[in-house]
Amino acid sequence: xxxxxxxxxxxxxxxxxxxxxxxxxxxxxxxxxxxxxxxxxxxxxxxxxxxxxxxxxxxxxxxxxxxxxxxxxxxxxxxxxxxxxxxxxxxxxxxxxxxxxxxxxxxxxxxxxxxxxxxxxxxxxxxxxxxxxxxxxxxxxxxxxxxxxx
Length: 150
Fold this sequence. Notes:
The chain is mainly alpha-helical. The protein is built from six helices and two strands.
């Protein structure tokens, strides 16, 4: 029997991309894993009176700050997945959200070693995500090719 190509309705379009740099892969996975692992830290923080004391020093209501924490975890998880998928919006979302989050933290809360470490990691991740090799990866498709579905 001769193998014939699948009819057009059963073909899929394969996207040829620039290869994903290893550093981008590491950042994407770190974002996703840290987001999942941080869920327990946020849950524990919500029941720790010492954390509530620190957060109460801010001009923002404590409940609003907890909401921002949960939203940040979700944004980080989604951004990490998008970074691995090569979605440019994901790196922009991560850098934008995290930048605003760090700015709010610095302006409204006492600066702690955790704040400084988080800011340094953010700057490193942003640098990696906007290096030329990463920008080429996020720039999209180099071309389209038609491949038979398996």
